[in-house]
Amino acid sequence: MMQHIPLQDLYNKDNRYRAKLINSLSGFKSANVIGTCDNIGNTNLAIFSSVVHLGASPALVGFIMRPDTVPRDTLNNILLTKHYTINQVSSTFWQQAHQTSARYPPNHSEFSETDLSVSFIDGHQAPFVEQSLVKYAVVLKEIIPIASNNTQFVIGEITDILCQQSAIKADGYLDLESLNTVCVSSLDSYHITQHLGRLSYAKPETPLTPLTIDGERGTTQ
Amino acid sequence: MMQHIPLQDLYNKDNRYRAKLINSLSGFKSANVIGTCDNIGNTNLAIFSSVVHLGASPALVGFIMRPDTVPRDTLNNILLTKHYTINQVSSTFWQQAHQTSARYPPNHSEFSETDLSVSFIDGHQAPFVEQSLVKYAVVLKEIIPIASNNTQFVIGEITDILCQQSAIKADGYLDLESLNTVCVSSLDSYHITQHLGRLSYAKPETPLTPLTIDGERGTTQ
């Protein structure tokens, strides 16, 4: 049975109930940990479920920063160095990724606190998560204040991609499922995925064609 | 083996290769269809993979609008009426949802073209998708231009939630998986999910506790 919940009814519930319900509404969310460091190389890592694709040319990615919540160090470091990394979370380290949301003191690194390993590439200051199989270096482009609720939309340009080679298909599609990338629902729930299929580009009056994982016309595997 | 791809290498590949790869980087994306209508009640429906949670109090949700691509009618209608609906896509109509991305003429409704049914609630102009089991009415709050790539960030406030009652857990968590809500990867790939678990609120020096689907401490089901 469908239930109709006017929003004002939710404002009578406790904050956590409302937060869990509202956080569920956008659907499944991406699970990423963002790596940064300060000017003297202290590393920081924090989980975000709001990373969103913005465009391929230039290659831009955004995420929502809530200034009043945990990962304040992330924003401070990005403002200092302009560099950050975004690392997809997989089922091999989802609990460690969740643990990065704890309020560690600024001089503690979430890398060592959660037993995740640091790696670097030449020309980029921010640390990557060694365990992540799809990750990329990002340079800050703009920070847009969102007046409606005092959050900020942090936008960066991707400069380097590090990815498990086997996941890159001939047409550019990344088979994230083969790498066990997870997604998030609500505030604290994690999921792996099961493929339904890829579909051809939609046109009016033309039936959709299933695509193989390699992007060829044919039945889905 | 990990492959390192500097972004300039991708600019030598064809546009579609680059688009599929860059679109894969943010991880799994939410799958939603946005319902709107014009001033004389012509309905429109378009799929978006960029719907993102912005905050619970007030209850705000955002999505990215690319002015130069298909669902231009969506933005025009939102500007006209200020009303829209966001409807989670499930595995019972994922192909119909994908088909809404075809470039139908403005006087054709994607509802009838894709055999999805319209429903309404009192006090809100925009059409819901009957088949969707988690959906909500949204009133436009602000539209933020993103200078970096001429997209727009459309922000709205949720006024009414319609949800399958069985999915609402005691602590406010919505069990989207039980409703077969799908997620998207890259441009054309759809996935259902499999639950890894819910985790307790993370604190320093405190082991995480698995939560049941109802949010109680205990083993995951």
UniProtKB/TrEMBL annotation, chains A, B:
From the UniProt record, list the coiled-coil ranges. none
What cofactor is this protein dependent on?
A: FMN
Q: Which Pfam families match?
A: Flavin_Reduct
Keywords in UniProt for this one? Flavoprotein, FMN
All copies of domain Flavin reductase like, residue ranges:
26-165
The UniProt similarity line reads:
Belongs to the flavoredoxin family.
Q: Which SUPFAM superfamilies match?
A: FMN-binding split barrel
Entry protein name:
Flavin reductase
Which superkingdom is the protein from?
Answer: Bacteria
InterPro entries attached to this UniProt entry: Flavin_Rdtase-like_dom, Split_barrel_FMN-bd
Keyword Flavoprotein found: yes
